[in-house]
Write a structure and sequence with these properties.
mainly alpha, about 5% strand, about 190 residues, elongated, two-stranded antiparallel ribbon, single chain, 2 strands
Length: about 190
């Protein structure tokens, strides 16, 4: 495998980009914890955003209990906005990650392997490719349901604006505040 050595600060920047792209095996060096199969690496990458959402939820709960005396109803919009912004930031990376088992490359020996996991032979009855495909198909329900939720929010936006629903705007402003009010559907 060819590699290029970069000098600082570009080397550090590229490591951060690898984390954002969920390339955790190169950044965190998880192989010291044991042997990771391609399937376990794939599952670990898929669960990173869930873990991040859990950390945000625990942090939010702690702050609301300590600083706002447990007033979760008034602080719900903050949690929704943070989780929504987090999801929006990583939407493309997560979608690309979920499609990795479908990205196969041809090798000179005539076999197709998953581009991100060269040890996994594509469309083979032996090995872990079918497991990765199954996980990918089920995991892809997340971005599809996310898109359906955004469509529903885009449809609800004009009515929320008419009734001056501040809670709606605080919760979902991360979707709409980048556009002029009459162009709210650009988020799609």
């Amino acid at each position: 495998v060819m590699s290029v050595t970069y000098n600082e600060p570009l080397a550090s920047f590229l490591k951060v980009v690898k984390v954002v792209a969920f390339d955790i095996d190169e950044v965190l060096r998880l192989d010291c914890l044991g042997s990771w199969t391609a399937v376990t690496q794939y599952i670990a990458k898929l669960t990173m955003l869930v873990v991040a959402a859990f950390v945000v939820g625990v942090t939010h709960t702690s702050v609301v209990v300590v600083r706002h005396r447990g007033d979760f109803k008034r602080r719900r919009s903050t949690l929704v906005a943070v989780l929504g912004t987090l999801g929006l930031m990583f939407y493309t990376s997560v979608t690309v990650l979920m499609l990795q088992p479908f990205q196969c490359t041809l090798h000179p020996n005539g076999k197709w392997t998953v581009a991100a996991y060269e040890e996994v032979i594509c469309w083979s009855s032996e090995g872990s490719h079918s497991t990765m495909l199954t996980i990918s198909v089920f995991a892809f329900a997340v971005p599809i349901s996310n898109f359906a939720a955004v469509v529903a929010l885009v449809r609800a936006y004009p009515a929320a604006m008419r009734r001056s629903d501040a809670d709606f705007l605080r919760s979902f402003g991360f979707l709409f505040f980048r556009f002029r009010p009459h162009m709210h559907w650009y988020i799609l």
